[in-house]
Amino acid sequence: MHKFGKRALTLILGAAWLGACSPQAASTQQQDVRAEAAMPERHPVSGLEVVPLTIESGEEEHVFAVEVARTFDQQRRGLMERPPLGDNEGMIFPYNPPGVQSFWMKNTPSSLDIIYVGPDERIINIYENTEPLSEESLPSAGPASLVLEIRGGRSAELGIEPGDRVTW
């Protein structure tokens, strides 16, 4: 079963259990289930698969709907020539095997936070508020198995930092 299916089932079962224990908590869980159910399977602009991604930062969990750039061509294109991302949107670039990665902002008209994630699912380093259209190379500080791009400044707004856990 795909991770999205397991997560949705877990949220539904959790919401049912919490309903017997806490009406307020059940309401929050039911809102999460509705939000995930509304997540498109494919992004309307890129056509890429859209999946949920969670960042555990301290006691907080931040959930994003991310496009998955799996192929070389999808990764090369990334978010070039695209409008700004929403607060809870992003794009991921999975790498297997992990390696030192380097991104740039060429042809990307809006600022991004570029987040490098190691094979242990922990954030290695973050480039915040990158300069749009820049050709400056922004490398990972170690081998990365995943790169996440979100709206520029969003990681600081949410308190996301190196060491936080990323799952998808």
TrEMBL record:
* The protein's name in its UniProt record: DUF192 domain-containing protein
Which organism's genome codes for this protein? Parapontixanthobacter aurantiacus
Q: Does the keyword Signal apply?
A: yes
Q: Which UniProt keywords apply?
A: Signal
- Supply the InterPro entries for this chain: DUF192, Saro_0823-like_sf
The answer, when asked if Signal is one of the entry's keywords, is yes
Pfam families per the UniProt record, alphabetical: DUF192 (PF02643)
What Gene3D superfamilies does the entry give? Answer: Protein of unknown function DUF192 (2.60.120.1140)
Q: Which residues form the signal peptide?
A: 1-25
Q: What is the lineage of its organism?
A: Bacteria, Pseudomonadati, Pseudomonadota, Alphaproteobacteria, Sphingomonadales
